[in-house]
Structures are given as structure tokens and as C-alpha cells.
Amino acid sequence: MNAPFLITPATILHAQPLATIHAMSFPPCERWDDAAIAAQFSLPGTFALITAEGGMILARVIADEAEILTFAVIPARRRRGLGRALLEAASDAARARGARILFLEVAAGNAAARALYTAAGFRETGRRRRYYADGDDALTMAREWEE
Ligand SMILES: CC(C)(COP(=O)(O)OP(=O)(O)OC[C@H]1O[C@@H](n2cnc3c(N)ncnc32)[C@H](O)[C@@H]1OP(=O)(O)O)[C@@H](O)C(=O)NCCC(=O)NCCS
After folding, report:
1. What angle do CA 26, 94, 6 make, to 5 degrees?
2. Does domain 7-144 have CATH number 3.40.50.620?
3. Residue from 30, 88, 105, 124 carrying the catalytic annotation
4. Are 73 and 54 in contact (CB under 8 A)?
5. How far is the CA of 105 from the centre of ligand 1 (A)?
6. Residue 147: pLDDT above 80?
7. Å from CA of 119 to ligand 1 middle
8. DSSP string across 3-52
9. Sign of the CA dihedral 128, 36, 43, 75?
């Protein structure tokens, strides 16, 4: 059972705390600073969720398609169900905005994220060979909902 995390909507005004969580969660070459996060909000359909426990997720809905743009839980708070809770909350938010399918991209070597996505019902839809700077492949995954 998931702990009752307090997950709240975030806006461009939260670009700094979103970037702080991102920086604590990703290696330096993959970090998005507050300007990069603020830039996402200037595009239509972008929404974000944040938790005081140290998690964030940024996503976009365009018509009936949604995409996870970035998603992170700080290392000290992992394996407590926070990532699952954020992913579910973002999925619910995307559906509420009219999405019927949710896409994401994940490094083939990212076992933690792949396990989470598979458990949440995402299926692999493609592979981009040597997509990342370290030579890893990118997997594309999607989760669809019935009407
Ligand atoms: C991926 C990430 C968000 C998961 O966050 P989390 O809060 O630890 O995830 P949860 O505790 O909700 O885990 C849910 C399930 O995912 C799987 N999982 C999570 N971490 C795992 C790990 N290190 N190894 C194997 N499975 C893992 C498990 O099935 C887990 O369920 P369980 O704990 O009951 O076994 C976190 O590891 C992270 O921020 N990683 C760095 C950034 C990143 O990779 N973001 C995603 C980019 S696509």
C-alpha cells in the first residue's frame, strides 16, 4: 500500500524547486535547470506535479496524446512508493485533460524506471539505438486507456 503522499500541482512559479529535485536525482549531464523547466511551461499542454517528499513529474498533453517529459524522486526517498504515486497522479491528470495514451522514453539501462513503468502497465513500443550520450539505447513505452 502506498503512503499518503501529498502531491500537488506545480506551475512555472515552481521551476526552481522542480529543478532542485531534478538536480538531486540525475547525473550532472542530464540535469534540467530552472530555465529549462520554465521553458517547458511556455509550451501548451505542459503540467507538473511536485511533492514535499522530494519528487516531481513534468508532462504534456496535446489533443488525446500525453507524454512524460521528465520524472524524478531524490535518492534518499526512493523505494517508498513515491515514484509510483507520482506516475499514477500524472496519469490521472493526463486522462482528465483528455489523453487516451501516455508515452515516455527511458534508457534501456535504467532498470528502476523500467520496472516501475512495466508494473504500471506501460508496454515497449520502440527502441532508438545509441540514443543517449553514453551510448545507451532509448526505449519508447506507452500506456493506453479504454474509453
Ligand atoms: C525511477 C524513479 C522515479 C523511481 O522512484 P521510486 O520512488 O524509487 O519508485 P517506487 O518506490 O514507487 O517504486 C515502484 C516500483 O518500481 C520498481 N523499482 C523502483 N526502483 C527500483 C530499483 N532500484 N530496482 C528495481 N525495481 C525498482 C519496483 O517494482 C517498485 O516496486 P516495489 O518497491 O514494490 O518493488 C527513481 O528511481 C528516480 O528518480 N531515478 C532517477 C531518475 C530517473 O531515472 N527518472 C526516470 C527517467 S525515464
Report:
1. 60
2. no
3. 105
4. yes
5. 15
6. no
7. 10
8. ----EEEE-GGGHHHHHHHHHHHS-GGG---HHHHHHHHTSTTEEEEEET
9. positive
Taken in order 108, 27, 15, 74, the sign of the CA dihedral is positive
Residue keyed to cell 512508493: 81
* The model scores a pTM over 0.85: yes
CA–CA distance, 127 with 108 (Å, rounded to integer):
9
Categorize the per-residue pLDDT at 3 as very low, low, confident or very high, splitting at 50, 70 and 90.
low
pLDDT at 118 over 90: yes
Q: For residue 64, what is its C-alpha cell?
A: 488525446
Q: How far apart are the first and last CA of the chain?
A: 27
Of 137, 128, 144, 24, nearest in space to 75 by CA: 24
Distance CA 97, CA 135 (A): 35
Q: Domain spans of the chain?
A: 7-144
57 pLDDT above the threshold of 80: yes
Tell the residue nearest (CA) to atom 17 of ligand 1: 116
Residue at 57: amino acid letter: I
Alpha carbon 132 to chain centroid, angstroms: 17
